[in-house]
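Fig. S4 source data, part A: sequence.
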Amino acid sequence: MDTANNRKPHVTEFFSRHWWLFLIPFLLAVYFFFSFLLVAMGKAVEVGNRDNVFYDAAVVISPWNADALAGYAEYKRNYAVSVEGEQRQLALAEAVEYFERAINQRPYWPYYVVGALDAEYIMGAPDDVIQQRFDAVVELAPNERGLDHHFTQLAILTWLKLREDQKAWAGKRLLSVKSPARQAAIDVLKILPDFQRGPLCAQLPWSLAKEACQ
């Protein structure tokens, strides 16, 4: 009994001296909440300017937040396709930069790599850049079906920049994807100019290409 009674003052003294330690979990919770709140607010902003103050704040206060970085990259990409010339290229360069930062935070998440490939395609990146990014997606997620819808369309759009082995992989993948993803890729093929569609019509399996190439 005496030991227990002697211990109580020490416990009380510890709490009185180190009460601030119990603020740490609360402050961390506020920090994370505020970070993700800024991302949600950034997503809600209609694309109209190259910059987004909420995403700007989110990536400054939480540079570890891959969702914030990728979200801002996607925002920049969407802005880029709404403008022309220098503004488009600047926004796309920033989109790629933010996608790269997101990839660094989550290096095994292939969706960010596909986002970077999309931005680089719109930029008109050189063949080797497109090929390296394509390889990275295939290496990270050769069987990730969630990528099919976007990635197969990008394969069609970047076809002239791909190596022969990459074209073969894309053609085989298109034969195995679910019907909505396959049809979306065929719809992209239909609207390509002749100089792009011609090689695809010659090289894709005819069961895929015939709808767009007859």
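Fig. S4 source data, part B ends here. The chain has a mean pLDDT of 89.
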